[in-house]
Amino acid sequence: INAAVVLYAKDVLPNYPHCMIRMARFRGTDKLADFLDNQRVYGNAFHLLSVASEFVQRHLPVASFLEPGKMQRVDQPAVPALALREALINAISHRDYTNRSASVSLAIYDNRLELWNNGVLPPELKIDDLKKRHESYPRNEVIATIFHERGLVEGWGTGTVRMMEYCQKNGTPAPEFQEYSGGFAVVFPFKEPMGGIVKEPSQNMLRNELTSRQREILKILSVGEKMAVGDISVQLQEKPAPRTLRDDLARL
Predict the structure, then answer these.
(1) CA–CA distance, 209 with 227 (Å, rounded to integer)
(2) β-pairing, 104-108 with 20-26?
(3) H or E element that contains 23
(4) What are the CA-CA distances from residue 160 to residues 19, 165, 184 (Å)?
(5) CB count, 10 Å around CB of 185?
(6) What is the DSSP letter of 34?
(7) Would you call 106 helix, strand, or coil by DSSP?
(8) Using CA atoms, how far apart are residues 220 and 233, in angstroms rounded to an integer?
(9) Helix (H) or strand (E) run with residue 74 in it
(10) 120, exposed or middle or buried, with CB in 10 Å at 0-12, 13-18, 19+?
C-alpha cells in the first residue's frame, strides 16, 4: 500500500508529507547565500520527476556553439538531461521512506547541481563501486520494479555508470558521488560557473555597441508598452526598411 501511494497517489497530504521534493536555486556556491528560487512540491513519484525536470530546465543554462565543418548548432546543457533523469529516479526509488522527516532535495548553485536523498548505500556497495558496473540492491523493490516496467531504469546497477557516460558524451565534468547527513548525493559540477545575477548592460556598453537607430528604438520602448513593428517605425526619425527594423529588434 505504501509503495502504491508513493507511485500513484493523487493527494499525498496529510498522511505522507515525506512524498516531497525540495528545490532551490542559490545565489552563490553554498546554502548561506540568498535564494533565487525556492520550492517545496508534494506528490507521487511521477509528479515529482516532472516538476524537478521543469525546475532544472528553468534554471540551468544551455551553451550553444558551432563546430568547424558542421552546419547545425551544437547545444551543450550544463547537466545532460538523461544523466539528471537517472539521478532523480535513483533518488526517488532508493531513498529511505521509513524516515518521514526527510525528503529528496535538489539544489542548484553557481558551480554545481546537487541531488540528495536520505538513506545511505547498502553495505554491499562503496562509493568507488558506483563508477563501474555493479550489482543492484534496491531499497524499495516495488518502486524500482514499477520504474523498470515503465522503461525508466534498466534495473541492473548501471544507473551511475550511465550518468558518467552521458556527461562524457556531453563534454561536461563527471558526476561525483558522496554520502553525508545519513543520505546519498550526486553532484554534477558545471564546466563553467554561472552567475547568480544577470547584470544589466552599462550605458557605456550601449553607447559603444549599439547604432544610433538602435538606441533610439530603446528610448521608444522605454515607456514599457507593447508595440508592433509598425508603431515603432512611425516614431523613428529615419524610417528603415521593415526587415532592417526587425534585425535591430532581434539584436536588441
Answers:
(1) 24
(2) parallel
(3) strand 20-26
(4) 23, 9, 12
(5) 19
(6) P
(7) strand
(8) 10
(9) strand 73-77
(10) middle
pLDDT digits (tens, 9 = 90+) for 37-85: 999 999 999 999 999 999 998 898 776 555 566 666 656 788 999 999 9
Q: Contact 70/95 with Cβ under 8 angstroms?
A: no
Indicate the pTM of the whole model.
0.72
Spatial distance between the Cα atoms of 175 and 77, rounded to a whole number of angstroms: 14
C-alpha cell of 143? 518502486
Across-strand partners of 183?
A: 118, 180
Rounded to 5 degrees, φ, ψ at 99 are: -90, 105
* Sequential DSSP letters for 170-225: HT-PPPEEEEETTEEEEEEE-SS---SS-PPPPHHHHHHHS-HHHHHHHHHHTT--
The SS3 of residue 62 is: strand
CB atoms within 10 A of CB 114: 19
pLDDT for 180-192, tens place per residue? 999 999 999 998 8
